[in-house]
Design the sequence.
C-alpha cells in the first residue's frame, strides 16, 4: 500500500491554480460561510465551517505559490502540511462536507469553497487519509463496476422483472440509439421502478434509447473520494460505451454526483470534449414536455415540495426543469424556504452516505432539512436523486416524520396518459 | 526632526516609497495569481462564463433575504464600514487633490461634514467589528494575527484622519503627518495582508460566477 | 556723546519717559489693557502690567543681523502712526543695530562691546538672520564671522530673542539644499533663554508684545514646543481664519480667478498652509490691522513654521505629495510587471513540474 504524505502534498501542489490563488488571497475571515453550512449551523462547532476545511490546500498555496510564503519557507516560518494535520482534517474534509456548495453561494468575496474542498480531497486521498467507507466504494467501483458491488446479472434480472411487469422490451446495447441511459446502483437495487418509469415515458414519447451492458453505472466514487485518475477511469468506461453504441446523448439518472461526474467533470477528467451530449433525465423529460410528447391524464393533488439535489441544482444548473415538470403534474406545489440554488443539502452527498463513520453527524445535520420541511409541512417530497431519497427516507424515519419520498420521473410516469 | 520636516518627509520621500511598494506589490501579487492559470473547461457549456463572472462581481454584493438574516451583523457592519471608508477615501476634497496630483484625474467631492460623519460611522463600525471578532465563536476560531493587523491598518488612518481634521491633541502638522504616515504604512503592507482582497475579490467573484455561469447557474 | 545721552535716559523709568512724551495716563492704561488682552491675560492683570511698566528701567538691547534680508527690521520700523508700541520700541536702548544705528565701522563695534560690558548679564540680545556654518566667510561683520559674533554677544545676554524665521529656524537660507550650512540661533545657543518670534517677517506687535512681557515680568512669556510665545502662536491660521466655514463646508476656490475665489471661499486647494501654520496673522493682521494674506486672496505660505520653504511649493495643497510620484509609479509598475511575470513564471514552472511528475493514482495508493 503506497499512500504517503509526499504524494498528498504533490497532489495538492497540482491542484492549485489561479482560481484557488484568487480565492485564498481574497478570504477576509468574515465567517459568513459558517452560517451557510449545515455542518456548522447544526453542530455549532466552528472547526466545521467551510473555509477551515481547506486549510491543507491553503498551506500548500501559501508556502509554494506566494512570494511571502516562499520567503517564509526559506526561514521555516510557514505552516507545514503533515500527517497530524491531515489526520485531524480527515473528518472535516470527508465527514463534514457534502460538497453541496452552499458556502460558495454566500461568500462575499466570491470564493468557491466547495471547489477547494473537492481539490483538498485530491491530496487527502493519496496521503492515505480518505475514509474507509469511501475507499471501499471506490475499490468496488473500479474492480466490480459499481460502488455497491452491483454486477451486470443483477441489472439484467431487474430488466427482466420490468419487462415482465410492463410487457415491453427494454432496449439493451442498441447501436445508433439517440439516448443511452445510465443508472445508479441504488436505482438498480433499491428503486427499479425508475427503470420502469423511464421505459414507460420513452415508449409513449417514441424516444429511441438504450442501456449499455458495458457501462450502465452512472455513479463515480472517484470524484467523491477525490482521485481524478480513478474518476477518469470510470468516466472513460461510459465514453467508450457511448462511442461504441454511437449514441447522441447520454442520460444521467436521478443521482446528483453522477450528473456532476459525467456532465461537468467528465470531459475534463478524460481530457477531451465528449462526442456526445450529456443530459440529466429531468432535462430530457422537460424537452419532451416542451415538444408536447409528455401527455398526462391525471394530476397530483397532495401538497408537494421539491428537494433540490445540490449537484443537480446549485452545482449542476438543472433548476427550472423540475419546476416546469411539477407545474405540469402537480396542483399543490409548495417551495421550501431556501430553495433552488439556495436549497439546503440533505446531508448525505459528496460521499458522506458511503462513509459509515459519518452516520451520526449526517443524521444530526438533517435537522436543517427538517426545519425546512416543518415550515411547509408537505404531504410528500419530490426529488431527483436516489442518494437524497435514501437519506431523506432514513432520516425522516429517525426523526419520526412520516413524509413519503417520490421520484419526479416515477411520478410523471404514474400520471402519463395511456 | 521638526514637525514640519516630519510632514515634509511623509509628503515627499515617505509617500514616494509607500506608493512604489504598494503599486509594485499589488501588481506582483496579481500576476502571481493570474499566471498560475486554469484549465479550459472541456464540458459543453450551458451558459456564458464571461457573463456569469461579470454578473457575480455585481450580484455578490447583494444577498438573498435568508442569507441576510443569517449573517445580518456581518453584512450590515461590513456594508457600513466599507461604504464609509471608501467614500471618505475617495470623496474628501483634500484626498481628491492628492489623486489629481498623482493620476491627473479629479472628480467632485462630498461636503466635508458628510465625510466627517462617514468617518465616525466607519470607526464605530470597525469597533463593533473588532468587538465581534473577539467575542464571536466562529470569528475567534478563524482569527489570526493578520486579521488584527489588517484591522489596525484600516482603522488607524480613519482615526488619525479624524484627529487631524479636528486638530485633537497634537500640533496640526504632526497630526497631519501621522495621518499620512498611517496611510503609507497601510499602503506598504497592503499587498502582503488580507487587505489585498480589495483587488482579488473581483477575480474571485469572477471565477465563482464563471464556474457557475458555465453550468447555467447565477451565483 | 550718544553714549552719555543713552546713559542719562537709561536712568528714567518707562513711566517717566512716556509722561515726558506727553502720553496721558488714560492712553497708557488703554495700552496696558490692550497688551493684556493680546497676550491672553485676564483683565485683573492690567494694573500689575501698568505698575510694572511704570517702574521698568530702560533695558539695553543689542540687535545682531546675520544672513537676513532686513525684512524683519522693515516690518518693525514701518509703523503707520506713532503708537505706544513704537514708543516702547523707542524706549529701549538699542545700543547696536547695524541698519539703524548712526555709528559705522569701528565705532559701531565699539558700541556693541561697550554695551556688553556695561550691561553684562542684563541686556537683551535680538537676532535676525541665520548663521552660516559651512564657511565662516559666507557672512561676516567687521571681519568677525556670524557664529563668533553670536557666541561672543550671547555670553552676557539675559535672554535671546530670535526674530524672524531665519533666526528662529534657519528660514530661507536653510532651505534645501542649504548652501551655506545655515542654522538657527537655537541650534547654537543652549545655555540662555531663547524666544523664537518667527515669521517672514514677524508681525510687529508680536515683537513689542514680547518686549512688553519681558519688561513687565522680567521673564519670558510662556512658549510652545518650538520656542514661540503661546499668546501669539497658540492657534493656527486655519483655526482663526474667517474663511474656515468654507473649508468646513467643502467650498473651495479652484483657481485665483474663479467664482469661488470671488466669493471668498477657502484657499486650501490653492496650497494654503493655514492648517499647519501657527501665527497671529488672522487676528492681529498686517498694515495697521488692515488685512492679512488670506484676506487679500492669497493662500498662507506657512512662513512662521520651520522649513516653510521646503514644503513642495506654495501652491501645492497640503494633501498633495511633494515629489513627483507619478513617474516613479509608472517605473514601479513596469518593474513590478516584469518581476510579477518572473514570479508568475516560477509558480507556473513549479506547477507544471508537479503535473509533469504526476504519477497515475491507483487503487493501492488510497491506503497507507
Sequence:
Amino acid at each position: 500500500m503506497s499512500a504517503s504524505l509526499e504524494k498528498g502534498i504533490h497532489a495538492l501542489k497540482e491542484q492549485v491554480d489561479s482560481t484557488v490563488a484568487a480565492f485564498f488571497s481574497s478570504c477576509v475571515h468574515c465567517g459568513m460561510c459558517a452560517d451557510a453550512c449545515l455542518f456548522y449551523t447544526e453542530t455549532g462547532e466552528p472547526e466545521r465551517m467551510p473555509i477551515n476545511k481547506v486549510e491543507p490546500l491553503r498551506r500548500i498555496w501559501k508556502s509554494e505559490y506566494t512570494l511571502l510564503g516562499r520567503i517564509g519557507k526559506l526561514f521555516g516560518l510557514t505552516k507545514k502540511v503533515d500527517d497530524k494535520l491531515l489526520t485531524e482534517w480527515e473528518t472535516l474534509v470527508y465527514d463534514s462536507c457534502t460538497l453541496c456548495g452552499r458556502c460558495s453561494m454566500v461568500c462575499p468575496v466570491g470564493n468557491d469553497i466547495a471547489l477547494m474542498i473537492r481539490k483538498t480531497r485530491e491530496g487527502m486521498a493519496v496521503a492515505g487519509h480518505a475514509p474507509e467507507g469511501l475507499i471501499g466504494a471506490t475499490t468496488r467501483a473500479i474492480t466490480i463496476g459499481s460502488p455497491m458491488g452491483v454486477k451486470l446479472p443483477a441489472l439484467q434480472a431487474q430488466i427482466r422483472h420490468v419487462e415482465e411487469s410492463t410487457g415491453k422490451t427494454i432496449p439493451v446495447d442498441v447501436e445508433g440509439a439517440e439516448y443511452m441511459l445510465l443508472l445508479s446502483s441504488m436505482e438498480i437495487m433499491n428503486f427499479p421502478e425508475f427503470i420502469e418509469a423511464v421505459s414507460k415515458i420513452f415508449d409513449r414519447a417514441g424516444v429511441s434509447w438504450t442501456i449499455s451492458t458495458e457501462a450502465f453505472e452512472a455513479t463515480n466514487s472517484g470524484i467523491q473520494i477525490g482521485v481524478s485518475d480513478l474518476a477518469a477511469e470510470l468516466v472513460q468506461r461510459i465514453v467508450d460505451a457511448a462511442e461504441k453504441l454511437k449514441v447522441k446523448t447520454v442520460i444521467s439518472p436521478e443521482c446528483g454526483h453522477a450528473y456532476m461526474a459525467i456532465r461537468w467533470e467528465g470531459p475534463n477528467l478524460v481530457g477531451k470534449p465528449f462526442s456526445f451530449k450529456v443530459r440529466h433525465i429531468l432535462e430530457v423529460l422537460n424537452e419532451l414536455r416542451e415538444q408536447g410528447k409528455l401527455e398526462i391524464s391525471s394530476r397530483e393533488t397532495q401538497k408537494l415540495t421539491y428537494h433540490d439535489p445540490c449537484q443537480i441544482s446549485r452545482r449542476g444548473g438543472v433548476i427550472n426543469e423540475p419546476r416546469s415538470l411539477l407545474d405540469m403534474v402537480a396542483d399543490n406545489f409548495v417551495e421550501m424556504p431556501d430553495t433552488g440554488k439556495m436549497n439546503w443539502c440533505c446531508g448525505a452527498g459528496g460521499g458522506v452516505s458511503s462513509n459509515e463513520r459519518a452516520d451520526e453527524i449526517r443524521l444530526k445535520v438533517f435537522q436543517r432539512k427538517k426545519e425546512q420541511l416543518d415550515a411547509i409541512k408537505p404531504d410528500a417530497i419530490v426529488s431527483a436523486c436516489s442518494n437524497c431519497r435514501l437519506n431523506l427516507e432514513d432520516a425522516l424515519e429517525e426523526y419520526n416524520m412520516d413524509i413519503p419520498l417520490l421520484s419526479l420521473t416515477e411520478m410523471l410516469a404514474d400520471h402519463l396518459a395511456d | 526632526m521638526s514637525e514640519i520636516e516630519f510632514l515634509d518627509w511623509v509628503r515627499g520621500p515617505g509617500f514616494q516609497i509607500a506608493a512604489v511598494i504598494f503599486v509594485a506589490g499589488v501588481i506582483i501579487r496579481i500576476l502571481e495569481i493570474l499566471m498560475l492559470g486554469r484549465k479550459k473547461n472541456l464540458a459543453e457549456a450551458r451558459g456564458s462564463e464571461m457573463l456569469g463572472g461579470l454578473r457575480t462581481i455585481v450580484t455578490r454584493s447583494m444577498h438573498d433575504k435568508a442569507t441576510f438574516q443569517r449573517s445580518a451583523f456581518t453584512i450590515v457592519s461590513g456594508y457600513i464600514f466599507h461604504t464609509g471608508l471608501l467614500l471618505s477615501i475617495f470623496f474628501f476634497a483634500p484626498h481628491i487633490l492628492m489623486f489629481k496630483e498623482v493620476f491627473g484625474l479629479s472628480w467632485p467631492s462630498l461636503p466635508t461634514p458628510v465625510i466627517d460623519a462617514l468617518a465616525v460611522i466607519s470607526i464605530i463600525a470597525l469597533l463593533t467589528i473588532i468587538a465581534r471578532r473577539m467575542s464571536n465563536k466562529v470569528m475567534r476560531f478563524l482569527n489570526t494575527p493578520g486579521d488584527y493587523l489588517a484591522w489596525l491598518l484600516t482603522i488607524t488612518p480613519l482615526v488619525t484622519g479624524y484627529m487631524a481634521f479636528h486638530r485633537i491633541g497634537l500640533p496640526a502638522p504632526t497630526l497631519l503627518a501621522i495621518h499620512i504616515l498611517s496611510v503609507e504604512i497601510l499602503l506598504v503592507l497592503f499587498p502582503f495582508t488580507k487587505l489585498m482582497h480589495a483587488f482579488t475579490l473581483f477575480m474571485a467573484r469572477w471565477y465563482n460566477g464563471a464556474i457557475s455561469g458555465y453550468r447555467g447557474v447565477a451565483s | 556723546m550718544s553714549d552719555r545721552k543713552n546713559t542719562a535716559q537709561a536712568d528714567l523709568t518707562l513711566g517717566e519717559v512716556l509722561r515726558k512724551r506727553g502720553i496721558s495716563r488714560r492712553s497708557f492704561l488703554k495700552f496696558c489693557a490692550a497688551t493684556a488682552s493680546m497676550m491672553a491675560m485676564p483683565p485683573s492683570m492690567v494694573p500689575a502690567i501698568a505698575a510694572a511698566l511704570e517702574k521698568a528701567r530702560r533695558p539695553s538691547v543689542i540687535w545682531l543681523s546675520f544672513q537676513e534680508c532686513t525684512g524683519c527690521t522693515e516690518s518693525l520700523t514701518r509703523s503707520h502712526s506713532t503708537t505706544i508700541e513704537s514708543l516702547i520700541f523707542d524706549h529701549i536702548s538699542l545700543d547696536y543695530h547695524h541698519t539703524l544705528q548712526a555709528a559705522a565701522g569701528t565705532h559701531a563695534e565699539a558700541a556693541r562691546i561697550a554695551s556688553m560690558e556695561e550691561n553684562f548679564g542684563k541686556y537683551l540680545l535680538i537676532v535676525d538672520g541665520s548663521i552660516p556654518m559651512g564657511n565662516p566667510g559666507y557672512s561676516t561683520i567687521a571681519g568677525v564671522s556670524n557664529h563668533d559674533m553670536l557666541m561672543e554677544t550671547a555670553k552676557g545676554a539675559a535672554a535671546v530673542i530670535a526674530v524672524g524665521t531665519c533666526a528662529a529656524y534657519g528660514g530661507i537660507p536653510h532651505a534645501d539644499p542649504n548652501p551655506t550650512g545655515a542654522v538657527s540661533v537655537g541650534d547654537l545657543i543652549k545655555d540662555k533663554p531663547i524666544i523664537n518670534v518667527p515669521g517672514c517677517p514677524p508681525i510687529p506687535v508680536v515683537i513689542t508684545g514680547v518686549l512688553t512681557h519681558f519688561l513687565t515680568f522680567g521673564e519670558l512669556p510662556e512658549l510652545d514646543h518650538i520656542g514661540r510665545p503661546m499668546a501669539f502662536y497658540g492657534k493656527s491660521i486655519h483655526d482663526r481664519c474667517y474663511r474656515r466655514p468654507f473649508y468646513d463646508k467643502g467650498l473651495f476656490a479652484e483657481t485665483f480667478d474663479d467664482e469661488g475665489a470671488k466669493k471668498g471661499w477657502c484657499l486650501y486647494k490653492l496650497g494654503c498652509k493655514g492648517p499647519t501654520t501657527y501665527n497671529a496673522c488672522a487676528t492681529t493682521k498686517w498694515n495697521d490691522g488692515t488685512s492679512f494674506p488670506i484676506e487679500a486672496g492669497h493662500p498662507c505660505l506657512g512662513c512662521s513654521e520651520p522649513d516653510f520653504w521646503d514644503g513642495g511649493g506654495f501652491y501645492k495643497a497640503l494633501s498633495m505629495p511633494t515629489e513627483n510620484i507619478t513617474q516613479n509609479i509608472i517605473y514601479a509598475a513596469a518593474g513590478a510587471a516584469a518581476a510579477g511575470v518572473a514570479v508568475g513564471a516560477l509558480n507556473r514552472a513549479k506547477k507544471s513540474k508537479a503535473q509533469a511528475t504526476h504519477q497515475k493514482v491507483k487503487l493501492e495508493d488510497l491506503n497507507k
Remarks:
- The first helix of chain B runs from residue 3 to 34.
- Residues 3-31+45-214 of chain B form a domain with the Fumarate Reductase Cytochrome B subunit fold (CATH 1.20.950).
- The mean pLDDT of chain B is 95.
- Residues 74 and 193 of chain B are 20 Å apart (CA to CA).
